Amino acid sequence: MEVLALILAGGRGSRLDILSENRVKPSVPFAGKYRIIDFTLSNCSNSGIFNIAILTQYLPFSLNDHIGSGKPWDLDRRDSKVTLLQPHSDWYNGTADAVRKNIHYLEQSRAKYVLILSGDHIYKMDYRKMIQQHIETKADLTVGCKVIDPSEAFRFGMLEADKNNRIFKFEEKPKKTNSELASMGIYVFNTDVLLEKLRHNDIPDLDFGKHIIPSMIEEHPVYAYRFYDYWKDVGTYDSYLNANLELIETVDKIPLDMYDPNWKIFTKSEELPAVKIGSKATIRQALLSNGSIVAGHVERSVLSPGVIVHPLAKVTNSVLLNNVEVKPGAIVDRCIIDKNTVIEANALVGFGTDMTANVENPELLASGITVLGKRLVVPKNMVIGRNCRIFQTAKLEEADDNIIRSGSTLR
After folding, report:
1. 31 by DSSP, 3-state: which?
2. What confidence score (pLDDT) does residue 115 get?
3. Spatial CB neighbours of 293, under 8 Å, sequence gap ≥ 6
4. Looking at 95-221, which runs of residues are DSSP E strands?
5. Contact between residue 131 and residue 113 where contact means Cβ atoms under 8 Å apart
6. Where are the domains of the chain?
């Protein structure tokens, strides 16, 4: 095949903290029934790219189990395959080092072009257009890029390009820059050029943004491919919650159309019954996934498969992952709650006006979001404040006065 897609899916996703405690970031659930990596895999399938290798590393079991043979994305065809590549000995030390440690797979692929993708971004993109530009400009490397606010530049590789989109400057995560073009972590390489760069580079933590791209700009034709549609890195609690809640806006305001029959988002779905709505339920602006039951009040929230909201319970501005149960009289506001957690009757989670930032890690939680880990049981009548991080090993029943104050972390 002419194109081999390599999906980098080994990132730990440390800023997602509790959500990535037992799973790699691309495997984190998103938009109810999906996982983050479903968007990249679906882009490949919809772009007619079926020769795919996924480079995993940390906590790969959840991701491996989700992808399996690749059938939901039509990757189990006779003329296609999905391969999961894990480190044989040493950990991957950089994005390019991850590819270098699998160089034999790349050599045996006989692909003319290598499409390198990240498995942890939310977007819809026809990669064929980027590859076509790469061919037409006779580039050795094409970098997918998007205009961003310069104040966010410290999070991205920033580049400058001329009127023909040829890149003449690239800087990885600068503190200050006048550039607005950010690398999306999407690259098209001529395979022979990529192999040369990997073979003749002994930098231990070899990285595309820090090393490969800057070194190629002067000696090779390197071009920018500008992408103007929705693209988001959901690498923080704030971006994760906001990106989920953006999907419940009215049709004319939804930034990411997931209902386009010509560009479906595929996933491995559980066999669960249809959504059930109780006679006294009230629902406003919500995504309800298969198997969920709503008998209480749900507003501006995303419910994953199997979530149950009992009568007189209230869920607002929140994301509830698979099989979370909210018992009668309980109130959940501005929360992210991981799988199989139970909120017992009359408990208040995400409560009050005290917006004290998380004391242990204020950079993670300061906007009022409270996050609960997997398989917790929040006792009856418990009050949990804002900006709290509660890991799945926490012993909630030992909390003083049945209260967990804003800014707390429990392990």
Report:
1. coil
2. 98
3. 275, 276, 278, 307, 308, 309
4. 113-118, 121-123, 141-147, 157-161, 167-172, 181-190
5. yes
6. 3-246, 270-410
> Worst-scoring range by mean pLDDT, 128-137, 186-195, 246-255, 265-274?
246-255
CATH match for 3-246 among 3.40.50.720, 1.10.10.10, 3.90.226.10, 3.90.550.10: 3.90.550.10
d(C-alpha 139, C-alpha 119), whole Å: 24
| Confidence (pTM) | 0.93
Q: How far apart are CA 310 and CA 157, in angstroms?
A: 47
Reply yes or no on whether the pLDDT at 358 is more than 90.
yes
Give exposure, 133-155, as e/b (b: 16+ Cβ within 10 Å): bbeebebbbbbbbbebeeeebee
**What distance in Å separates the CA atoms of residue 141 and residue 75, rounded to the nearest whole number?**
26
| CATH homologous superfamily, domain 270-410 | Hexapeptide repeat proteins (2.160.10.10)
For 207, residues 6+ apart whose C-beta sits below 8 A from its C-beta are: 94, 95, 96, 97, 172
In this structure, are residues 9 and 28 in contact, taking their beta carbons and an 8 Å threshold? no
pLDDT of residue 85: 83
Measured distance CA(53)–CA(42) in Å, rounded = 14
Over the chain, what is the mean pLDDT? Answer: 92
- d(C-alpha 315, C-alpha 312), whole Å: 10
Amino acid identity at 78: R
